Amino acid sequence: MKISCKKWVRDGLYLGTILLLSALPILAEANGSGEEAAGGEGHNFALIFLWIAIVLLIAKMAGLVEKLGQPAVLGELIVGIVLGNLALFGVNFFEPLKTNVIFTFLAELGVVILLFQIGLESNIREMSRVGLRAGIVAVIGVVVPFVLGTYVVGPMLLPGLASTTYLFLGAALTATSVGITARVFKDLGKLKTSAAQIVLGAAVIDDVLGLVILAVISAIATVGAVGAGLITWILAKAILFLVGSILLGRFLAPFLGKMFSKIHTGHGMKFTMALAFALVFAYVAKLIGLAPIVGAFAAGLVLDAVHFKFFKNPKFCEDIKKAAGGETKISKEMREAIEHHADRHVEELIEPVSYLFVPLFFVWVGMGVDLTTLGDTRVLLLALAITAVAFIGKIVTGFAVEKKDRWIVGFGMVPRGEVGLIFASVGASLGVISEEIFSIVVIMVIITTLCTPPILSALLKRQAA
Amino acid sequence: MKISCKKWVRDGLYLGTILLLSALPILAEANGSGEEAAGGEGHNFALIFLWIAIVLLIAKMAGLVEKLGQPAVLGELIVGIVLGNLALFGVNFFEPLKTNVIFTFLAELGVVILLFQIGLESNIREMSRVGLRAGIVAVIGVVVPFVLGTYVVGPMLLPGLASTTYLFLGAALTATSVGITARVFKDLGKLKTSAAQIVLGAAVIDDVLGLVILAVISAIATVGAVGAGLITWILAKAILFLVGSILLGRFLAPFLGKMFSKIHTGHGMKFTMALAFALVFAYVAKLIGLAPIVGAFAAGLVLDAVHFKFFKNPKFCEDIKKAAGGETKISKEMREAIEHHADRHVEELIEPVSYLFVPLFFVWVGMGVDLTTLGDTRVLLLALAITAVAFIGKIVTGFAVEKKDRWIVGFGMVPRGEVGLIFASVGASLGVISEEIFSIVVIMVIITTLCTPPILSALLKRQAA
What's the ipTM? Predict the structure, then answer.
């Protein structure tokens, strides 16, 4: 990769200009109105428009990391960390975004749309081909960190705490946050590889296992014991959802597609059907206790180009064919190329929506990183040890797959993200996770999240070379 | 228009099936969880996903009104009215949407994106060509209803009230809500006509005049008088914004386009730049007291295809050219057709986002219609009289334009929408507008909003015939 010095200076100048432009409203606003918008009665919608515009522009500028060979998601995370910690330097303009319910909703919608896109791009046949291996990866990736955290490293590093505390610490180490890894695969165009399919499949199974663990340890922490009936019930409804939604969806999608195409065959209807599928599946997943992104991913898997065969947009074909001198003058290859590009595929229609929401999610995740937690040396050292366990517990899963995919799958399972934090918060709300342990979990989440994109991208490039 | 009976039965069956499908989650949810999501601490994001999916699907189904020759927006408004009044029949599932801050935000974003799209499709040269006529239309359309409401119909129908009450009633009759009319022009593909350009231009000027009126009458109601300095200042900053944003935007857009294209030339960057423009303009408009949609419209006017000339996506051209047997074998006409379709224009990139948000806005507007206000006969009769004034006050503006556009411009200015309601709410908060008069204004807004789409669509079709 050759980068000329002159180009860097120019890029730097551009970057400076934009940062200055972005800073204007911040200066104009001072600190007051941002906080005003977040709190209490009236939400200042216009201010949220401004926030979105600035966040999207800066996140796009951070696409410069791609020139360093890094995936774009890393840039977005870093932008989030910078914006989220500007308050340390007295700039409070972005502070309300962390808790603003509208911005948080948009971020959440972003990750739902991302997983839906990834589901659309994934192949259900390829997925079930790797199903067994994904299952083994998921089980190892849950059992190893849980056992290490609960029975080895927890009692060793933090002696004298209640056994339920260790249970929650171990549980917080289990759940892979698939958003980061999926974005890296997507950024680098590797979603169709077997490694990507294994990681995606494992992450879904992982979420189901995490659901069971959370229910079990919560029951232990509150009533002191747990019945086999509860575990069976949680597992049963999760499996029922995944299998049921895919079977029912594959049956319903062509039927609904035909039905809605009677009303309209335009892009609007196609888009609406696809998005509604994603949102309804996300809702049902949440309803039974799974993450909404698992539902959105299932919706993407279910939907297939064939369900949209009733939607046609022939204007484009006509234009090109007329210019070519009419139907008869066109070769077979030509006709196929035109037909292929004739209609905007559902992926293409969803893409602009993802341009809007997906960066908001990763910036929002980055904003959650509180750099001051890195200040306490004791906590930091403990956190580094726990983080090492978090890495090891997932990297070992790589040994369940083919040698060529070993490290990619292992590191692909590493990021923890919001799921680990949810476990820790539930523990905190039950009074078994102290503030110190919560900080440790936060640092573990930060490090696993930030280290994965560069490592994974290096591994994928080495494999391709 | 011929519609066979069989087709209608089939459409009806499909409609029934979908309604049944949509009703499932409603039944499953019972009434509780909807209210839970709206109120207090925790927002249930997954439930909002479900709401969005259902609203979008039902709104799209209402596209059936197009088979009756009506614009799609009428269907969306009717869906909103139905969903918003289901509580009368004991179904409270959609009730929280009326006040849910996230849904309201998404609706507001929808109308901002709609006006941005309309700005993109409008031609600034055509717009300034009709500028003078638009100005006259705007002034007549503000002065006539204001004078009629404040000095004639108000004191006549509602005698014995404070003069400031009449002032607010008159003011509530002035401001045209451009969203409805613009959607009708868009639905029928008439945005480029001179009538559409006049109405759009007049609506922008109208908003500026409305801003001045609101400031003046608020000052009269609170301090009893108003200085010429205040009026001048409000007018000056509004004009400064409109002229300044368009001039500055036209200067900045190519510069920013070039700069951002250094980082990335993909669709994502193009989309982000365009959307950020719209959102920043919407924010600045709000900041100086104008409606955010005026800013978004100005942003659309400013942006032009030429600002995106640095963004190229040649993959598509290659595909088609290769299939045709290489560059040399392609005729000039053919090459032009390919180049024209080669890149996704910014309008195309914004479109899917509008599929998501725009229907939410019109459904939300419809949901605001409280059918019980139509129950009180005295209020209803008074409201009908005031509504007649609202119609007459705008229809007369048609006499300022060419004969062929007369009725289209006149009726195009009729819908009042949220601006009239804002005036009435400000009056209510100052204690000069009673609940009864507020209901009257609400009914006037309902009728002007609902009658315009069918009337305008009939007029446009008659003109085309």
Answer: 0.79
